Every structure is written in C-alpha cells, then in structure tokens.
Queue: 4 jobs
Job 1
Amino acid sequence: MTLPRLNIYRHDRGARALVTLAGVIDPVTAPRVRAALEQCLRDGITLIDVDLTTVDRCDDSGLRVFLDVSEHAAESRAFLLLHHPSLQTERLLMDTGCDGLLHPMRPKGARPQRA
C-alpha cells in the first residue's frame, strides 16, 4: 500500500475556507489542488486561506495552480492567500515575481523580502 503524495484538508467557516495541504505539489498532485481550490469558489467561498506549512515541495505546476485560482477568485471578488510557505516555495514565488500577487505570509504576518 502506497501513501498519498498529497493530503488536502478543508475547513469552512462561513464564506472563508482554510485549505491545508500536506505533502508534495507536483504535476501528479497539482490537479487535485486545483480541483479543491476551484470547488471552494463554486461553493461561494470568498476567502481561501491555503496553509502550506506541511508542503514538502511545490514546483511550477503548483505555482500555475495558485496563479490560475487566484485569477479566477479575483473575477468573482474572492481572494486566495498563501500562508507559511517553505523557503523553497517562497523562493519560487519571489523568483517568478508572484510573491506580491499571491500574498505569501510568514508567521506574525511578516512579508518576505526580495533579495
């Protein structure tokens, strides 16, 4: 029996959802992330908090999902916020210029700074 490469947990509180991802976001798992986040929008969620604390790795396929869902959210006056990205994910966001668009947050709300 193989363990899943990614676990997705969702907890709703009114029009806000906390989506916790645990594992690896790559070409195999990115479609599951996209489906979970898009379902939030279809369910009328207007603020999607994505907790990346337990994401081991996120590649450009995961980044594409976050960008696309963020764009879809904005079209419906909703927001996607990334919280607690790993240093690798934080670097990916900053290197691609997406850090301002996705609002990655560190503990206590401090924004990462570009080098």
Job 2
Amino acid sequence: MLTAVDHVQLAAPPGSEDRLRAYYTGVLGMTETPKPPALAARGGCWFEAGDVRLHLGIERDFRPARKAHPGLRVTGIETYAARLAAHGAPVTWDGLLPGHRRFYSEDPVGNRLEFLEPVRS
C-alpha cells in the first residue's frame, strides 16, 4: 500500500549544482541535505522543506521537463510569487484549477514547477 511520496527527482545538466543551490535554497527557501557518499559521486543536489523533498540528478543529455512537474503547495502564494519574481524567476498565473490559486515557474535549468495554494471558502 502506498503511504506517501518520498521525493520527486528532476534532472539537471552537468555542472549546474551551484545554480541549483542558489535557486532552491536562496529563492525557494529550501535546505540542502547531504547525499549519501555513494550517490554524491554522481553529482546533483538534494533539497527539502518540511515534508517536501526534491532531488536534482545530473543527466548528461539533459532536456528540461516542460510538461511533467512537481506541484508544490505553498502558503501566502501572492508573497511567494513576488519572491520568485524579485529573483528574476518567471511567474505565470493559471486560474484553471477549481479551489486553488496557482502559478507556474521554472528553475534555473528550465524545469517546470507548479506552486499552488487551496482557496478557503
């Protein structure tokens, strides 16, 4: 029986770790977590915030995920969108999901990210 999502993995190009760290920690406010030594040799970075875990793995023939994406729930979505925009990240609002405010953005290597907050009735 499935009980939870442990993490979501996104791909990134070789040598992008510093840009990923700056974005996921500095812009999104996540914390980098150390990878086990056997996996650290492959490159990439792991991040978490509360129960949210994102793994960025290095892929030699990298192509950013333009459709597939993690949906990240936030609080204070207006403030969060302004934070991303202030750091130069794109913010594209989408009002098509009933009961939610949401926008799309992308990380510094072009992976699509969705940010959403339930609307209280």
Job 3
Amino acid sequence: MHPFRWVPADGGRHATADIRLAGAYAVGENITVLCRRSVTVARGTELAWLWPTCAECNREAHVLVEAE
C-alpha cells in the first residue's frame, strides 16, 4: 500500500498523505494534498474519478512510490 491516497477535490483528482485512521475523508473536509494546496473534498462519484489528475500531485506521488 502506498503512503498516499487519491481524493476527488476542487474539480480534480488530488493525492494526499494525510493520515486517516478510519474510512474515507468527509465531503467538505479540507485536506492538504501533495501539491501543497489545501483543497475541499468532493463526493467520490463515478464522474468525480474521471476529473483531471493534478499534475503536481501525480509527480509527487511518483516520488513517494520510488522512495518505497
């Protein structure tokens, strides 16, 4: 399992390393993502997972995977 997870937020797919012990992030919750922005979590619908992937979060996610 990777040290991050993908979350639909602010009209895109962002990755976060924020620790969540139980369940998913709450809709409307503010989290910090790998692109170092604070974003608001959206509902994880089928369409939300088709939103564009944040390029900076994607780059940072690859760095984390390579470091594992």
Job 4
Amino acid sequence: MQSLQVTDLTEVTKLSRPAVSHHLKILKKAELID
C-alpha cells in the first residue's frame, strides 16, 4: 500500500494542512489508519 504525506492529502482534498492533520489524528486514534 502506498504511503501518503499530509501535503499530498491537502492537494487532493483542498483542506488546510492543520485540518488534514487533525482528521488524521482522529482516524489514527480510532485505529482506522496507521
């Protein structure tokens, strides 16, 4: 599986870097991502 960087996700989602980081933190806490 390919690893993505926060900057990759900000480009695709058009969300700010802090917003993407916040959502990733939630997903990681829920153990939906590594």
